[in-house]
């Protein structure tokens, strides 16, 4: 019996509904990843506004401030891979929600801290909670988008929303600290975080299979990715560039508020400067994406890293007013490179190893960002803040030779 026209229409309708449903789930997945990135990056980078306030309250040295940054970035980096393994067992969305709740709780408890060592413990807790966001959000979106161009656009959007969080939360922190005392500011910011967590949970409801991380079928290959060099030289070169880029970014942003203080800036001005930098960084995601399509990924990295070194030097020697004018361009160069790097990870590893590759990549980047603030803090205490900023600027140029193994590896 031949199928009737009505049967054919029903089949077409069911196929169309299936496509629409798949697109709907893909968009929801992108929303979840973007919202989580917005919140976690915002919570992490608003700490730059709190650092000078905490230094003044407890008479801390630059080494101790660097240690604070080491604690939060170190715990975030160390738990990248464990969070991915836990997600394979209990589900990605569950781990993402739990980590977000932990970070929000840590920020809330900032407001009741009376000793710096207690604050250090809460910074560790905050870093552990935020460790789930990068690998899980990136893997969710990479799996949801099967085409290379669509995946790259989605990962660029993911990084863009993270920069929006970096813009909003530091500015909000500076405003709230100027209106209230910093403990009250931290509690209000935590309340905003829990509201966004509720929205995140509602958006994630009913996603089903997309919440589960597929277990790697080829364990030897995964092991080779984590430990081997042969066959993955391009990935490790990209990771090395990410390490230096992340170290430069985190170290400079940690000590930028103190550099601005030496120029006469107050809390509001510091928050404004950070907002300008992160606004430039958000723009940099778009600009660097366009630049990468025009001149290629490698040339884009060379241009942005060279511009980063030049702008950091400018922030050191210019007056406060001129430094503020330079801040958006610095942000464009400082943050714009990251979306190009993150979006290139899936093109250098097999599909089944993407989640692990993202975990390794983020662990390396955050690990470098955890170590260098303490090192540069020691340099600042024993030499000067000016020397520290000079070394940071020169460090950005160390990425240039690492672009050589990446030639011809991108579409």
TrEMBL record:
<feature type="transmembrane region" description="Helical">
    <location>
        <begin position="385"/>
        <end position="406"/>
    </location>
</feature>
<dbReference type="GO" id="GO:0005886">
    <property type="term" value="C:plasma membrane"/>
</dbReference>
<feature type="transmembrane region" description="Helical">
    <location>
        <begin position="117"/>
        <end position="136"/>
    </location>
</feature>
<dbReference type="InterPro" id="IPR036259">
    <property type="entry name" value="MFS_trans_sf"/>
</dbReference>
<feature type="transmembrane region" description="Helical">
    <location>
        <begin position="357"/>
        <end position="379"/>
    </location>
</feature>
<feature type="transmembrane region" description="Helical">
    <location>
        <begin position="234"/>
        <end position="259"/>
    </location>
</feature>
<feature type="transmembrane region" description="Helical">
    <location>
        <begin position="157"/>
        <end position="178"/>
    </location>
</feature>
<protein>
    <submittedName>
        <fullName>Major Facilitator Superfamily protein</fullName>
    </submittedName>
</protein>
<dbReference type="Pfam" id="PF07690">
    <property type="entry name" value="MFS_1"/>
</dbReference>
<keyword id="KW-0813">Transport</keyword>
<dbReference type="GO" id="GO:0022857">
    <property type="term" value="F:transmembrane transporter activity"/>
</dbReference>
<feature type="transmembrane region" description="Helical">
    <location>
        <begin position="296"/>
        <end position="318"/>
    </location>
</feature>
<dbReference type="InterPro" id="IPR011701">
    <property type="entry name" value="MFS"/>
</dbReference>
<keyword id="KW-1133">Transmembrane helix</keyword>
<feature type="transmembrane region" description="Helical">
    <location>
        <begin position="93"/>
        <end position="111"/>
    </location>
</feature>
<dbReference type="InterPro" id="IPR020846">
    <property type="entry name" value="MFS_dom"/>
</dbReference>
<keyword id="KW-0812">Transmembrane</keyword>
<feature type="transmembrane region" description="Helical">
    <location>
        <begin position="184"/>
        <end position="204"/>
    </location>
</feature>
<keyword id="KW-0472">Membrane</keyword>
<feature type="domain" description="Major facilitator superfamily (MFS) profile">
    <location>
        <begin position="29"/>
        <end position="407"/>
    </location>
</feature>
<feature type="transmembrane region" description="Helical">
    <location>
        <begin position="324"/>
        <end position="345"/>
    </location>
</feature>
<feature type="transmembrane region" description="Helical">
    <location>
        <begin position="265"/>
        <end position="284"/>
    </location>
</feature>
């Amino acid at each position: 019996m031949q199928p009737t026209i009505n049967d054919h229409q029903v089949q077409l309708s069911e196929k169309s509904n299936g496509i629409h449903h798949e697109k709907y789930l893909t968009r929801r997945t992108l929303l979840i990843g973007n919202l989580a990135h917005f919140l976690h990056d915002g919570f992490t980078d608003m700490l730059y506004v709190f650092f000078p306030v905490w230094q003044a309250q407890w008479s801390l040295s630059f080494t101790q401030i660097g240690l604070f940054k080491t604690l939060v970035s170190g715990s975030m980096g160390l738990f990248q891979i464990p969070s991915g393994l836990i997600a394979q067992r209990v589900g990605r969305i569950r781990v993402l929600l739990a980590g977000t709740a932990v970070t929000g709780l840590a920020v809330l408890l900032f407001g009741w801290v009376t000793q710096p060592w207690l604050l250090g413990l809460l910074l560790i807790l905050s870093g552990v909670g935020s460790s789930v966001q990068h690998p899980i959000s990136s893997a969710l979106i990479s799996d949801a988008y099967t085409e290379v161009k669509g995946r790259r656009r989605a990962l660029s959007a993911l990084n863009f929303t993270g920069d929006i969080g970096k813009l909003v939360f530091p500015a909000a922190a500076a405003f709230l600290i100027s209106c209230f005392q910093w403990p009250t500011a931290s509690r209000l910011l935590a309340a905003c975080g829990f509201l966004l967590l509720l929205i995140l949970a509602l958006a994630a409801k009913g996603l089903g299979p997309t919440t589960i991380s597929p277990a790697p079928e080829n364990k030897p290959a995964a092991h080779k990715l984590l430990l081997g060099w042969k066959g993955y030289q391009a990935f490790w070169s990209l990771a090395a560039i990410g390490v230096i880029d992340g170290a430069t970014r985190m170290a400079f942003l940690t000590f930028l508020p103190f550099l601005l203080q030496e120029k006469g800036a107050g809390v509001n001005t510091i928050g404004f400067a950070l907002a300008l930098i992160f606004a430039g960084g958000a723009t940099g995601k778009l600009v660097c994406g366009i630049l990468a399509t025009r001149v290629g990924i490698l040339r884009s990295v060379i241009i942005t890293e060279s511009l980063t070194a030049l702008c950091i030097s400018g922030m050191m020697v210019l007056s406060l007013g001129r430094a503020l004018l330079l801040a958006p361009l610095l942000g464009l160069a400082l943050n714009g490179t990251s979306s190009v790097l993150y979006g290139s990870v899936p093109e250098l590893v097999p599909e089944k190893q993407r989640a692990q590759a993202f975990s390794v990549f983020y662990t390396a980047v955050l690990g470098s960002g955890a170590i260098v603030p303490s090192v540069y803090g020691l340099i600042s205490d024993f030499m000067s803040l000016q020397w520290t900023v000079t070394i940071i600027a020169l460090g950005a140029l160390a990425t240039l030779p690492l672009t050589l193994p990446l030639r011809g590896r991108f579409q």
